């Protein structure tokens, strides 16, 4: 009986240790509103639009003092991603869009593909290239269907670098307007 109890404790300990050392699930959101947005420097197409002198990469720390909308999309030049990206382009150009807000798109695509996307769709804001998925994994927004693709999630980050709002259910056609309405309510 004592041997059985000792074995049970040993097995339970081994299971607990294995569970605690297993890799985190990168497909489950790891942040919430109020958390600091992760500081991960990424290359970006059209980075000069941010006014960062001679920058090769950008992180949320570089944009402190500004409200930032970072929308993640699965793949450049695909239908839903084009609809959403063009929606943000059009929202940014409207008189309703708050002037002190920065828009950034982001995906696991490389800079050349992001540049192609910008040129084809005449996008007016930078696109982050998270090709190694560092930021995507820190946020927990890796697609459960394809480990090389981000989920469609948007983060509104306040002027101090904290997450003000997370949109984890996004309709590409209506989402940009939804974000603008939220931004107009912020002070």
How would a crystallographer describe the biggest sheet? 7 strands, mixed
Which spans of ≥5 residues are poorly predicted at pLDDT below 50?
A: 8-22
**CATH topology type:** Glutaredoxin
Number of DSSP helices? Answer: 5
Radius of gyration: 20 Å
Strand sequence of the main sheet, in spatial order?
2-1-5-4-3-6-7
> What is the average of the pLDDT values?
89
Which geometry do the CA atoms define?
A: globular
CATH architecture: 3-Layer(aba) Sandwich
Task: Provide the helix percentage.
Answer: 25-40%
Structural class, from secondary structure content? alpha/beta
Order of helices and strands: HEEEHEHEHEEH
Q: What's the number of structural domains?
A: 1
Extended strand count: 7
Q: How large a portion of the residues is in β-strands, by DSSP E?
A: 15-25%
CATH class: Alpha Beta
CATH level-4 homologous superfamily:
Glutaredoxin
Compose a concise summary of this entry.
By secondary structure, this protein is an alpha/beta fold. The chain is 33% helix and 17% strand.
Secondary structure elements and pairings:
Blueprint: H1 2-21, E1 42-45, E2 57-58, E3 67-72, H2 79-93, E4 101-107, H3 111-121, E5 127-129, H4 134-139, E6 153-157, E7 163-167, H5 175-184
Parallel strand pairs: 3-4, 4-5
Antiparallel strand pairs: 1-2, 1-5, 3-6, 6-7
Helix pairs in contact: 2-5
């Amino acid at each position: 009986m004592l041997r059985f109890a000792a074995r049970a404790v040993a097995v339970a300990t081994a299971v607990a240790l294995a569970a605690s050392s297993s890799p985190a699930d990168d497909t489950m959101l790891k942040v919430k509103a109020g958390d600091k947005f992760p500081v991960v420097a990424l290359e970006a197409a059209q980075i000069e639009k941010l006014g960062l002198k001679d920058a090769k990469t950008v992180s949320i720390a570089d944009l402190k003092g500004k409200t930032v909308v970072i929308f993640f999309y699965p793949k450049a030049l695909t239908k839903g991603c084009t609809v959403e990206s063009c929606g943000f382009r059009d929202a940014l150009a409207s008189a309703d869009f708050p002037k002190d807000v920065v828009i950034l798109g982001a995906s696991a695509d490389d800079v050349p593909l992001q540049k192609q996307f910008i040129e084809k769709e005449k996008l007016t804001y930078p696109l982050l290239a998270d090709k190694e998925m560092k930021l995507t994994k820190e946020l927990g927004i890796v697609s459960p269907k394809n480990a090389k693709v981000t989920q469609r999630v948007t983060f509104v980050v306040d002027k101090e670098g904290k997450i003000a709002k997370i949109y984890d259910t996004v309709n590409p056609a209506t989402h940009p307007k939804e974000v603008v309405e939220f931004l107009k309510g912020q002070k």
